[in-house]
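In the previous lecture we treated proteins in isolation. Real proteins rarely work alone, and many bind small molecules. This record shows how such a complex is specified: first the sequence, then the SMILES for adenosine-5'-diphosphate.
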Amino acid sequence: MARIQIKDLVKTFGAYTAVNGISMEIKDGEFMIMVGPSGCGKTTTLNMISGLETPTSGEIVIGNTVINDLEPGERGLGMVFQDLALFPHMTVYENIAFGLRIKKEPRAEIERRVRAAAEAVHITPLLAKLPRQCSGGESQRVALARTIVTNPAVFLMDEPLSSLDAKLRVDMRTELKSLHARLGATFVYVTHDQAEAMTMADSIVVMSKGRIEQLGTPLAIYNTPATQFVAGFFGTPTMNFLEGTVEANGASRRFTAPGIDQPLPDGLPASIVGKSVTLGVRSEHLLVDANAPHAGTVLITEPLGDATLVHFDYGHGKSLVAKVPPTTTLGPGSTLRFRFAPEACHLFDAAGGARLN
Ligand SMILES: Nc1ncnc2c1ncn2[C@@H]1O[C@H](COP(=O)(O)OP(=O)(O)O)[C@@H](O)[C@H]1O
Ligand SMILES: [Mg+2]
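The predicted 3D structure, ligand included, written as tokens:
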């Protein structure tokens, strides 16, 4: 059983608290991704799981065993890092075999496992090559094979794709996801890249400043961000945010800000009336429509191919971005009208950023 439970984990470096009380459970066989901006404590958390760092307080349990005091080698974990550290003078085969040779596994067993691991990441033709004869993507696969060969119940990966170019990184996402499905192991993966987290994870832990902001499935996090921080972190382009207040009109609620008077979804509590809020709306939910209530002037357009981003000024010192069909004829200086549905509105407390709806 490779379920991992983390309880109130804290790590301080002198007066600085890098990890500030993290609790979570990673299910057996799950692909769990910790994501957050640089410096939020991802690597420190992963290193406490692997045993490279000692927790200041808190507990880490794998299966039914508290592992805080186990040596890294006793934890049954496999690690893949951004810094590949392949042995340059050894062939790919020998790099993959290294860990098994150290353990004095029988020669035939080593041969069988190296070939199976190479097969799993499609590098069988490279086995006789040296690392310098491999491309970046191939080297990353060698590093993966070197971990796969040790057959760990848990894979720990710290930004393993960040040294690859953009196209390869996208290809490797698909590969890692299918590798995870084939191996059935627990993956704990760290990245600052929200797109990696969205595309690969079964569940995501969003971190900021040493704490968990939100824990959930990729779509739950995208559709119902728990805080303004999470809302702004996921999605390209970044969610539009408008500052305003909530007003009551009988039982219904409206959001008002200079130039905007917007109906809000049903069911909001009375306590929200009069509050200063930040309204979030994603670019794909800002609809450009000649009969819409709000007006704006186009600043720039960015064609993406499958859609076009239209940045526009709505006359109150703030620009918004809408994602529109690529057939749009809007250009800089064009006027447009826009609207968005009450259901597309995310409301956050202007003080603190907690979700209100
Ligand atoms: N050994 C250390 N000594 C002092 N500060 C550290 C040490 N390791 C990490 N930190 C600090 O802890 C914070 C979190 O670091 P880290 O976990 O590496 O962040 P992330 O991986 O999310 O970018 C950073 O501010 C970093 O400077
Ligand atoms: Mg890091």
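Summary for your notes: DSSP finds eight helices and 20 strands in the chain. Residues 4-233 form a domain with the Rossmann fold fold (CATH 3.40.50.300).
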